[in-house]
Design brief:
binds magnesium ion; binds adenosine-5'-diphosphate; 7 strands; 6 helices; 7-stranded mixed β-sheet; Rossmann fold; globular; 169 residues
Length: 169
Amino acid sequence: MRKTHDAFSQFSQNMQLIFTTHSPTETQELGYRIGKLLKKGSIVALIGDLGAGKTCLTQGIARGIGIDANQVVNSPSYILINEYTGSCPVYHIDLYRIRDSAELDDLGLEEYIYGHGICVIEWADRLLESLPESYLKILLSHAKTEDTRTIEIINVGAEYTKLIEGLIS
Ligand SMILES: Nc1ncnc2c1ncn2[C@@H]1O[C@H](COP(=O)(O)OP(=O)(O)O)[C@@H](O)[C@H]1O
Ligand SMILES: [Mg+2]
């Protein structure tokens, strides 16, 4: 049994899970489950259009990490990075307003991405090349009805295999 499990971890490098949520609450609940499984140094790359639910999912993730409900988790507006304190520092980064790679360089995101906290990055498609080889990629999109979202969770690199397994069970 254990052997099967090890083989699963070793070879399933790009696993993908697809969820459909039917309300903001359901998206937050999924985020909560993800947040529970994150560790110091984890990187969550959120990709999806405006209104796809990236901030909503982040709110759930933040609760799952143990961020107190009185620390309101909203998208960073002018400062682009909000820091929260949970079981470890949590950096909520939003690259919506980033126009080019020079602006991105000015932000000095390496400090956060290669630091000891957890990074949750909205509009992460704008910096995919700068991410380490392992990260959790989450694609969000509008689905059939106004309140339905498709949320695709992919582990890039081997590091997040266990997290994906945790979400299945
Ligand atoms: N299933 C759902 N999941 C997440 N948000 C939803 C869902 N259904 C409706 N919504 C609404 O969609 C909007 C998502 O906004 P937000 O999370 O800020 O998106 P983004 O950060 O991707 O721009 C919110 O107004 C939320 O109430
Ligand atoms: Mg947002």
